[in-house]
Design goal:
Layout lengths: L1 H25 L2 E3 L12 E4 L4 E3 L7 E7 L4 H16 L5 E7 L4 H9 L8 E3 L4 H5 L7 E5 L5 E6 L7 H12 L4
Parallel strand pairs: 4-5, 5-6
Antiparallel strand pairs: 1-8, 2-3, 2-6, 4-7, 7-8
Length: about 180
C-alpha cells in the first residue's frame, strides 16, 4: 500500500512538472528562434471574398502573420486584442494577417464571425502548404515580419497584442532604417 501511495505521488509530481512546463511553453513565448533573420516565405492565399493576397505584395510594411483555428481557445481569446491592434496601427505601413488553417476554413470562419467582430484580413491555408513552410505546429503561432521581409520575432501562444510594449516594438520596426 505504501508503494502504491509513493507511486501515485511520483506520477502526480511528474504530471504537474510536465503540464506546468507545457503551459509555459505555449503562453506568450517570444523567441528569436531559428526563423529570426530569415526571409519570410512568400505565399498566395485567398480571403473570405476570394481575393488573393501575396506576402511579397506587402514588402515595405510590418506584417504580423498569425496562424490560428476557430477550434483553438487561445486563438479565440487573442482575437479582440488583435482587432484592437489593427485599429491602433491604422494609417501606418502595417498589416495584420490571420491565416486560418482549417480544412473547412471559410465555413468555420463565417460561423466564427457571427459572434466575433474582426475587420483585419483572414486568409485560408486549407491545404496546409503555408503552415508547413513556416513550420507551424502550435496554435496560435505568430511571426512578425519587418519591412524588408525578414522574420524578426516568433510568438508561440496567445498574447495581448494591444499592450503598449507591443505597439512600441512595432513602431520601432517601422522607424528602423532599411538595410
Amino acid at each position: 500500500m505504501k508503494r502504491l501511495v509513493l507511486f501515485v505521488g511520483a506520477v502526480l509530481v511528474v504530471a504537474i512538472i510536465f503540464f506546468g512546463q507545457a503551459s509555459q511553453q505555449t503562453t506568450n513565448k517570444v523567441s528569436p528562434s531559428s526563423a529570426s533573420g530569415m526571409m519570410a516565405a512568400d505565399f498566395q492565399l485567398k480571403d473570405l471574398h476570394g481575393q488573393e493576397l501575396t506576402l511579397s505584395s506587402l514588402r515595405g510594411k510590418v506584417v504580423v502573420l498569425n496562424f490560428w483555428a476557430t477550434w483553438c481557445p487561445p486563438c479565440r481569446e487573442e482575437m479582440p486584442s488583435m482587432e484592437k491592434l489593427h485599429h491602433l496601427m491604422q494609417g501606418q505601413p502595417f498589416v495584420l494577417l490571420a491565416v486560418n488553417i482549417e480544412e473547412n476554413g471559410p465555413q468555420a470562419v463565417r460561423s466564427f464571425l457571427q459572434t466575433h467582430h474582426v475587420t483585419f484580413p483572414i486568409l485560408f491555408d486549407q491545404s496546409a502548404e503555408v503552415r508547413k513552410r513556416y513550420g507551424v505546429s502550435k496554435y496560435p503561432e505568430t511571426f512578425i515580419i519587418n519591412p524588408e521581409g525578414e522574420i524578426v520575432e516568433k510568438v508561440v501562444g496567445a498574447m495581448d497584442w494591444s499592450q503598449p510594449r507591443v505597439l512600441q516594438y512595432l513602431k520601432n520596426l517601422l522607424a528602423a532604417p532599411a538595410k
